[in-house]
Amino acid sequence: MNKIESFKVDHIKLKTGLYVSRKDNYNGTVATTFDIRMVKPYKDDVIDIRAMHTIEHLGATYFRNSKFKNEVIYFGPMGCQTGFYLVLFGDYKSEDIFDFVVDMCDFIINFDGEIPGASKIECGNYLSHDLIVAKNIAKKYKDELVKYRNFLY
Questions:
Q1: What is the number of helices (H) and of strands (E) in the chain?
Q2: Is the pTM above the cut of 0.70?
Q3: In whole angstroms, what is the distance from residue 93 CA to residue 26 CA?
Q4: For 7-102, where are the E strands, in sequence order?
Q5: How far, in Å, CA of 29 to CA of 37, rounded?
Q6: Is residue 38 within 8 Å of 84, Cβ to Cβ?
Q7: Predicted confidence pLDDT, tens digits, the chain (153 residues)
């Protein structure tokens, strides 16, 4: 089997940032996958699974209610617990969605109340959330993203 593109990226050198991971074209429709890398692999601690779950719920809620709601295909966690994937219909660069991702961070940082979709009926593991840690991760990521504007690939 061929090695997939994301396994060709040197994760030892990878920094926190917002990157285009891949672009797919199906029958003339482009889908852009973004790597929202919130922590540095092998340098930072991985994102706690409960905080990751909370960011997933809040991020998905934000993106699905934003001006890009009709372009959102998917927002979800990376198995390595270092960030998230955002997949949008359209041919985008990281710079095109920079403010959108910063706004998602602000949404998480300022969120108060019950986590959307975090009930036994709506979620398969509704007790696994940590809003405080999720806010801290979003704040740290936003600060680094704004400061360094890392758009690697």
A1: 3, 4
A2: yes
A3: 18
A4: 17-26, 29-37, 72-77, 83-89
A5: 25
A6: yes
A7: 988 878 888 889 888 999 999 999 999 999 999 999 999 999 999 999 999 999 999 999 999 999 899 999 999 999 999 999 999 999 999 999 999 999 999 999 999 999 999 999 999 999 999 999 999 999 999 999 998 776 554
Give the chain's end-to-end CA distance (angstroms, integer).
24
Residue 22 DSSP SS3: strand
For residue 101 the two structure tokens come to 């991702």
Q: Which amino acid is it at 135?
A: K
